[in-house]
């Protein structure tokens, strides 16, 4: 029963619609009506610029971290002998948060693709692996300015790191890493097509691209 309540809480944490709330509250638009139509960090970068995109990405990562940390509220899982069960619960909580991000109850079940939230949960479970993936993401982003390509490459790096570099023994974590890479590739098919055709939008890293600004007279 406790685990079910924790999974519900994790889903609700994931349902915090960061991109939607930022776009509506600060810019006066619904991010889902612009760009790719996704309520995630990538589309926020594209439509509202790097400052808003970075903020959304960080908060979405925190959602994954908080969801995983819920497992520590149960004393049973703090016993070193239950480490495998702890990891399994953490993966379940993280996935519940990702589902909440993709289908947020607070935003009409129309969310993003869950990439930042996935990396947040990995950061909470395996910090070194997650930081390596973030490093890959930032390097590709700096070199190409493509957030979508950065997400795809970083996600593919996850199972490579888990299976071959760090040689993670936990079976469910290995399966999870492979599933994440496959999920990201599948959910980015349109982005991949645009990348091949040269039509994918780049993000400005050193300029605050505020396409939509709320003027003072709009509030008066």
UniProtKB/TrEMBL annotation:
Principal subcellular localization: membrane
Annotated localization: Cell membrane
InterPro entries: G3P_acylTferase_PlsY (IPR003811)
EC number: 2.3.1.275
Top-level taxon: Bacteria
Pathway: Lipid metabolism; phospholipid metabolism
Membrane-spanning ranges: 55-77, 89-109, 115-139, 146-165, 171-187
Catalytic activity: an acyl phosphate + sn-glycerol 3-phosphate = a 1-acyl-sn-glycero-3-phosphate + phosphate
GO cellular component, one term: plasma membrane
GO biological process, one term: phospholipid biosynthetic process
Keyword entries, A-Z: Acyltransferase, Cell membrane, Lipid biosynthesis, Lipid metabolism, Membrane, Phospholipid biosynthesis, Phospholipid metabolism, Transferase, Transmembrane, Transmembrane helix
GO molecular function (one): acyl-phosphate glycerol-3-phosphate acyltransferase activity
Keyword flag Cell membrane: yes
Membrane topology: Multi-pass membrane protein
PANTHER family linked to this entry: GLYCEROL-3-PHOSPHATE ACYLTRANSFERASE-RELATED (PTHR30309:SF0), INNER MEMBRANE PROTEIN YGIH (PTHR30309)
Family of this protein: Belongs to the PlsY family.
Quaternary data: Probably interacts with PlsX.
HAMAP family the record matches: PlsY
Role according to the record: Catalyzes the transfer of an acyl group from acyl-phosphate (acyl-PO(4)) to glycerol-3-phosphate (G3P) to form lysophosphatidic acid (LPA). This enzyme utilizes acyl-phosphate as fatty acyl donor, but not acyl-CoA or acyl-ACP.
Name the UniProt record assigns to this protein: Glycerol-3-phosphate acyltransferase
Species annotation: Chitinophaga skermanii
Gene: plsY
């Amino acid at each position: 029963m406790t685990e079910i309540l924790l999974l519900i809480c994790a889903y609700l944490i994931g349902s915090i619609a960061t991109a939607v709330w930022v776009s509506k509250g600060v810019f006066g638009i619904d991010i889902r009506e612009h760009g790719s139509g996704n309520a995630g960090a990538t589309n926020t970068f594209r439509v509202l610029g790097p400052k808003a995109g970075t903020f959304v990405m960080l908060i979405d990562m925190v959602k994954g971290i908080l969801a995983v940390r819920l497992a520590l509220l149960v004393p049973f899982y703090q016993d070193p002998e239950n480490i495998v069960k702890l990891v399994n619960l953490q993966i379940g909580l993280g996935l519940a948060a990702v589902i909440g991000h993709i289908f947020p109850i607070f935003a009409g079940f129309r969310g993003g693709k869950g990439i930042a939230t996935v990396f947040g949960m990995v950061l909470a479970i395996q910090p070194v692996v997650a930081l390596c993936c973030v490093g890959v993401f930032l390097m590709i982003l700096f070199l190409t300015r493509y957030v979508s390509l950065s997400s795809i490459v970083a996600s593919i790096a996850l199972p490579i790191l888990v299976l071959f570099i760090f040689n993670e023994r936990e079976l469910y974590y290995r399966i999870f890493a492979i599933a994440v890479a496959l999920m990201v590739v599948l959910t980015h098919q349109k982005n991949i097509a645009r990348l091949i055709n040269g039509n994918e939008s780049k993000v400005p890293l050193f300029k605050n691209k505020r396409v939509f600004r709320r003027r003072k007279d709009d509030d008066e």
